[in-house]
Amino acid sequence: MALELVRPESMERITTPELAEAYIADQIEGLKAQIGDKKVLLALSGGVDSSVVAAMLIKAVGDQLVCVHVNHGLLRKGEPEQVIEVFRNQLKANLIYVDATDRFLDKLAGVEDPEQKRHIIGEEFIDVFAEEARKLEGVDFLAQGTIWPDILESEAGVKAHHNAGGLPEDIASRFELCEPVRILFKDEVRMVGKALGLPDNMVYRQPFPGPGLGVRCPGAITRDRLEAVRESDAILREEFAKNGLEGKVWQYFTVVPDFKSTGVTDGKRTFNWPCIIRAINTTDVMEVTVEHLEPAFIDHLVKRITTEVPGINRVLFDYTPKPPATVEYE
Ligand code: XMP
Known about the structure:
The protein is α/β, with parallel strands linked by helices. It has 11 helices and 10 strands. Xanthosine-5'-monophosphate (XMP) is lined by residues 207, 209-211, 251, 285, 322, 326-328.
C-alpha cells in the first residue's frame, strides 16, 4: 500500500538550509512512526534522489535500512567506489554491493537496437534487485526516490516511472512503499541532500540516464569501446571541474561511436574510434543549446583524450542543439 502523499499547494518551496532542516526533522519523525522496528529496502544507484532517501533513512532508522547497489557495468568511473565509501564507510549503512557487470554485458553482447538495449538493461536491473530482495527475511518496506515531477509526469502520461510497479508480483506485494522525497522538486532534493551532509559531487551531479554509459556506446556494446567511453568521460569531468565549469554547464559527456578512421601516431598508422564531446545547457530538457567551450580548452581536451584513452585517435565536437538532435545518442 502506498502512502497517499500529495504536495500541499501552500507548501513553501525549500530554498534555505533552515527549511531543509525542518523538512528533514519532519520526515524523520514520520519515517520512525511508519517503519517502527521493521526493516526497509532501497535500491541505491548513487543518483541524487536515492542517495538523499538513503541518508534520510539512515538518520531515521539506522541499520534497519538495507541498501542494494547494483553495478550494471555501465556506471561512470569511480561511481560504485563512491557509493561504497559514502554509504558503507562514512554513514555506516547496511549496504549490499552487487557487481553484475558480466551478467549485463553478456546479455547485451551483439545487441544493436537502442530500444532493445534499454529494455535489457531495465529488465536485468529488476531481476538482479528482485533476487537480492528474495534473499532477505523480514523486510516490510520498500523505499524509493520518487520525486514530485515523476508523479506529475506519470499522471500526464509523459513517461512511466520505475517504481514497485516494475517488480515481480511476489516481491511488490510484500512491501509497503516509503517515499520521503515524493513531494519535492529536484532543487529541493538537492537542498535536503546538502543539509544531510552528502558530498557536493553527489548532490549537484549532472543528469545521468538509467541505462548509463550504455547509451553513449552506440550500437552493440563491446568492453573495449565501453572502457573508452568511461575513460574519456572521466577526463572530461576532471577537466570541467578543474576549469570551474562543474555545476555551470548542465550536462557534458563523451560518446564513442562504432566506426573507425585512419590516424597516425609516432609515424605509424592507426585505425581507431573517434570520441565525440557533447556539452549542453537547458532549463527544461525539451530545448537544449550547445555550450561553446574555449578553443584552448578544447585543444587541451583533444590532447588528453587522444593520448590517454586507448583506442581513440580523433576527437569531434557535437554542435547540434535539441531539436533536431536529442541530448543522448540512443
Ligand atoms: P534526451 O536524449 O531525451 O535526454 O534529449 C533528455 C535528458 O534526459 C536524460 N535521459 C535519461 N534519464 N533515464 C534517465 O533517468 C533515461 O533512460 C534517460 N535517457 C535520457 C538525458 O541524459 C538528458 O539529460
